C-alpha cells in the first residue's frame, strides 16, 4: 500500500469543528430545558407575548412526585388563571401596574404570591416539615427568650393578642412561624407570622409590617397542626405587602 490513510484529512480541524458543533447543541439543549417553567412567555396583561425567543419550548416532561403525590408535567398551559386587581399605566410592556383595590388582600405588588400546591411541604420521610411545637414534645426553647404568652404589638402600637405557640421546621431545627392568638377586637382565632418579621422583647413581641386593623385579614391556615405551601405563600405575602401598603405614608419615598 502506497497511500496513507487520512493523508489529506486534517484530523485536528475535524476534532475542533466537532467540539464546536457539540458545544452549540449543548447550549441549545440546556436553554430549552431551562424553559420548562414560565413559558410560553406572556405580556403584562396575560396575553401571549409576540416574541417568544429564538428557542422553541421543549416537549412536556412528566415527573413523578415522591410520597404518592402524583405526577406533574412541564411545560404546560396550566396558568394561575386568576384575575389580579391591577391596571396598566401604559399600553407598553414594562410600565408599572397600579392596584385597583386593596393590594394586601388582592395579592399584588409586594403582597403578590404564587399559586403553589395546597399541600404541606414534606421532609425526606414524607412527614410535614413545619409543625407547631405543642404537637411535638421533643422540642423546647434552649436559648433566647420564650415568646409564648407575650403580648403582640402591631406597627401602630395596638395590642392585638398574644403568642400562643411556635411552629418549628423539624428537619432544619428552626422556628419558622409564631402563632398569634388574636383578641376578639382584632379578629379572634389564630394567625401565623413569619419569625423573621417578629421582634421578641422582654415584655412583648412587635410586628412592624402591619397595623392592628390588618390582623383580622391575615390569611388563615386550615389545619391546626400543619401549614400548606399555598398558605405559606399568602401569609408571607400579606405581611410583606404591609411594608408598603399598610399606611399611605409608606407609599412615598423614604429618605
Describe, in plain words, how this protein is organized in 3D:
This protein is an alpha+beta fold and 255 residues long. It folds into two domains: 13-79, Irregular (Photosynthetic Reaction Center, Chain H, domain 1); 110-247, Alpha-Beta Complex (Photosynthetic Reaction Center, Chain H, domain 2), CATH 3.90.50.10. Helices cover 17% and strands 19% of the residues. The chain contains three helices and eleven strands; from the N terminus they run αββββαβββββββα. The chain has helices spanning 11-33, 103-106, 229-245, and strands at residues 61-64, 71-74, 86-88, 97-99, 130-132, 151-153, 159-169, 174-182, 190-194, 199-200, 205-206. Strands 5, 6, 7, 8, 9, 10 and 11 form a seven-stranded mixed beta sheet that branches. The protein has a two-stranded antiparallel ribbon with strand order 1-2. A hairpin with a 4-residue loop joins strand 10 and strand 11. The longest helix has 23 residues, at 11-33.
For CATH, the homologous superfamily of the largest domain is named as Photosynthetic Reaction Center, subunit H, domain 2
Number of strands: 11
Low-confidence stretches: none
- State the helicity in percent bands: 10-25%
Average residue-wise pLDDT: 89
Helix/strand class: alpha+beta
- What is the tally of helical segments? 3
Any idea how many domains? 2
CATH class of the largest domain: Alpha Beta
Largest sheet: 7 strands, mixed
The rounded Rg comes to 26 Å
Which descriptor suits the 3D outline?
A: elongated
CATH architecture of the largest domain: Alpha-Beta Complex
End-to-end gap: 87 Å
Strand content: 15-25%
Please name the CATH topology of the largest domain.
Answer: Photosynthetic Reaction Center, Chain H, domain 2
Spell out the helices and strands N to C: HEEEEHEEEEEEEH
Amino acid at each position: 500500500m502506497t497511500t496513507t490513510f487520512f493523508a489529506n484529512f486534517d484530523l485536528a480541524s475535524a476534532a475542533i469543528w466537532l467540539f464546536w458543533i457539540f458545544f452549540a447543541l449543548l447550549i441549545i439543549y440546556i436553554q430549552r430545558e431551562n424553559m420548562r417553567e414560565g413559558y410560553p412567555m406572556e405580556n403584562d396583561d396575560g396575553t401571549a407575548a409576540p416574541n417568544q425567543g429564538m428557542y422553541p419550548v421543549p416537549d412536556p416532561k412528566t415527573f413523578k412526585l415522591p410520597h404518592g403525590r402524583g405526577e406533574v408535567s412541564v411545560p404546560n398551559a396550566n396558568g394561575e388563571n386568576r384575575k389580579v386587581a391591577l391596571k396598566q399605566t401604559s399600553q407598553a410592556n414594562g410600565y408599572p401596574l397600579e392596584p385597583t383595590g386593596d393590594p394586601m388582600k388582592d395579592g399584588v405588588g409586594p403582597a403578590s404570591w404564587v399559586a403553589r400546591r395546597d399541600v404541606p411541604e414534606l421532609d425526606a420521610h414524607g412527614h410535614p416539615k413545619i409543625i407547631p411545637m405543642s404537637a411535638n414534645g421533643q422540642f423546647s426553647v434552649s436559648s433566647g427568650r420564650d415568646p409564648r404568652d407575650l403580648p403582640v404589638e402591631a406597627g401602630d402600637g395596638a395590642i392585638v393578642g398574644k403568642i400562643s405557640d411556635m411552629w418549628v421546621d423539624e428537619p432544619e431545627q428552626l422556628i419558622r412561624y409564631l402563632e398569634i392568638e388574636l383578641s376578639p377586637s382584632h379578629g379572634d382565632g389564630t394567625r401565623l407570622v413569619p419569625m423573621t418579621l417578629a421582634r421578641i422583647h422582654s415584655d412583648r413581641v412587635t410586628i412592624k409590617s402591619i397595623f392592628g386593623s390588618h390582623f383580622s385579614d391575615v390569611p388563615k391556615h386550615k389545619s391546626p397542626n400543619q401549614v400548606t405551601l399555598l398558605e405559606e405563600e399568602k401569609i408571607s405575602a400579606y405581611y410583606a405587602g404591609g411594608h408598603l401598603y399598610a399606611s399611605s405614608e409608606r407609599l412615598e419615598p423614604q429618605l
